[in-house]
Specification:
Blueprint lengths: L1 E8 L9 H10 L8 H24 L7 H17 L5 E8 L6 H11 L3 E6 L9 H11 L6 E3 L7 H18 L4 E8 L3 H5 L4 H13 L6 E7 L12 H10 L3 E5 L8 H4 L1 H13 L4 E3 L7 H16 L1
Parallel strand pairs: 1-2, 1-3, 3-4, 5-6, 5-7, 7-8
C-alpha cells in the first residue's frame, strides 16, 4: 500500500526578495484577517509593504531566509524511516507550507503523481488553532481532488513522544543553567484574545502541553508565556518579555522552551535567541538558556509515527 503523509507548517521566505510576497500571502488568509476579500486583499498588500523592511532585517540576521523548509524535509525523511521499519507499505512524506513554497497546489500535484492509496494530514503544530492547522486543512481540501481515503490528525498537545522529547530537552537546558534558582518559561506563539474567545482551543492545549512537561521537572518552577505579538489587538498573555523581566526581579535564571514550535525559524532564532537574550541580560537574569525545538528528536519522530499508524487504524 502507498501512503502519503502531508506535513503542514507555516513556511517562511527563502530569500530577502521573497519576504514581501510571503507576508502578503500570510495576511491574505481569511483565518488571519477575517474580512471580505475585497477589503482583506488590499489590506494584506498594505500591511506586507509596511512590514517588509523590519521583516527583511529579521531574516538578514539568519542568513537571508528561513530554514524551516529544510528542517521540515528532515522531519519528513525521519518519519518515513520510522514508519518503514514496521511494515512493507510505501511511505512518502510531503512538506506542505501555507504561505511560501512548497505550497498546497504544488504539493497536490506531487501527491497526484505518487498516486497513493491513502493520505494522512499531519500538522506540525502540536496545539490546534484555526489560524494554523485549521487554515492548512481548509486550503488542502479546496485544492485536493483525491477520492482515496484521507485521515486528519488535528492535534497532539500531550502525545507521549512529543512530551518525552520535550522533557529531555528541557532537563538538558536546566543542567546547562547550572546551580541557583531557575524558572522554566514555556513560550508559545501568541494569538489575539478574540480568537480564543470565539472558541479556538489553542490556549487550552498549550496549557495541557506545559502541564504535561512541568509535571516531570522535579519541582522546578515554570510558567507559560506568549511571544510574537503584532498589531493593535489585545493578545493572550502574559508576554514572554514580561515573564523574563519578572524572572530577573525574582533573581531566577531562565530556561526558555518554545513548546508550540517543532522546528527552528525566525521566531526562535531571532526573537528568542537574539532579542529576548538581550532583554534578559539587560534585565539582570542570572543565566538565560534557550532550549531547542524537538526537530528530529527520535522520541518526537517516534511519536509522530505512532500518531500516523493510529490514524490509519482508526
Amino acid at each position: 500500500m502507498k501512503i502519503a503523509i502531508i506535513l503542514f507548517n507555516l513556511g517562511g521566505p527563502d530569500s530577502l526578495d521573497s519576504v514581501r510576497p510571503f507576508l502578503r500571502n500570510l495576511f491574505s488568509d481569511p483565518a488571519i484577517i477575517a474580512l471580505p476579500a475585497w477589503l482583506r486583499l488590499p489590506l494584506a498588500s498594505f500591511i506586507a509593504k509596511r512590514r517588509t523592511p523590519k521583516a527583511r532585517g529579521i531574516y538578514a540576521q539568519i542568513g537571508g531566509g528561513s530554514p524551516i523548509v529544510g528542517q521540515t524535509e528532515a522531519q519528513a525523511r525521519a518519519l518515513e524511516a520510522a514508519l518503514s521499519q514496521c511494515n512493507s507499505d510505501e511511505w512518502r512524506g510531503y512538506v506542505c507550507m501555507r504561505y511560501w513554497h512548497p505550497m498546497t497546489d504544488a504539493v497536490v500535484q506531487s501527491v497526484k503523481r505518487f498516486a497513493p492509496d491513502r493520505i494522512v494530514l499531519l500538522p506540525l503544530y502540536p496545539q490546534f488553532s484555526t489560524t494554523t492547522t485549521g487554515s492548512s486543512f481548509k486550503a488542502w481540501k479546496e485544492a485536493a481532488p483525491f477520492k482515496m481515503p484521507t485521515v486528519e490528525i488535528e492535534s497532539y498537545p500531550t502525545e507521549p513522544g512529543f512530551i518525552q522529547a520535550s522533557i529531555e530537552l528541557v532537563k538538558q537546558g536546566l543542567a546547562e543553567a547550572g546551580d541557583g534558582p531557575k524558572r522554566v518559561l514555556f513560550s508559545a506563539h501568541g494569538l489575539p484574545e478574540k480568537i480564543i474567545k470565539a472558541g479556538d482551543p489553542y490556549q487550552k492545549q498549550v496549557e495541557e502541553t506545559a502541564a504535561s512537561i512541568g509535571a516531570h521537572l522535579d519541582g522546578v518552577e515554570w510558567a507559560i508565556c506568549y511571544q510574537s505579538r503584532v498589531g493593535p489587538l489585545k493578545w493572550i498573555g502574559p508576554p514572554t518579555g514580561e515573564e523574563i523581566k519578572r524572572a530577573a526581579q525574582d533573581k531566577r535564571s531562565v530556561v526558555l522552551y518554545p513548546l508550540s514550535f517543532v522546528s527552528e525559524h525566525s521566531e526562535t532564532l531571532v526573537e528568542l535567541d537574539i532579542d529576548y537574550r538581550k532583554l534578559a541580560a539587560e534585565a539582570g537574569v542570572p543565566k538565560y538558556v534557550r532550549v531547542p525545538t524537538v526537530g528530529t528528536h527520535p522520541l518526537f519522530i517516534h511519536g509522530l509515527a505512532n500518531l500516523v499508524r493510529a490514524a490509519l487504524e482508526g
